[in-house]
Please model this.
Amino acid sequence: MRAHRKIGAMVATAALAVGFGAVAAPSADAAAGCWTNDGGIKWYCNNVSGAPVYGIIGNNHSYPDPGKIVGYMYSNPSWFYCKEDGQAWVGGPHPTRWLMTVADNGQLGFMKDTAIYSETDPVLDCYR
Model:
């Protein structure tokens, strides 16, 4: 009789553990994409509040300067002009992508793609 109770308790514990595991499993849904309301002049994306906005290298607006923070973005969602691939390494699903924007203090710059929750593929390229 004790053996049956032990087996029953083990089965119940295993079933309970499996049940909790199924409830706690994260969703595999992809992040929703950035969106535009004006045909692509400004793109709105969900982002990390307080993320740094980095300056540009020289007078060429094509290259973010990963060593120069010019401001921060506290709004969420925030708007972006365009995206640049092939820039300094940031990691994430788009490891060399930066998005051009204006920081909350009015400074033009770039935000790292890793500071943006929305999928940034829909955002237009800066030089199209």
Remarks:
- The mean pLDDT is 81.
- The longest strand covers residues 64-73.
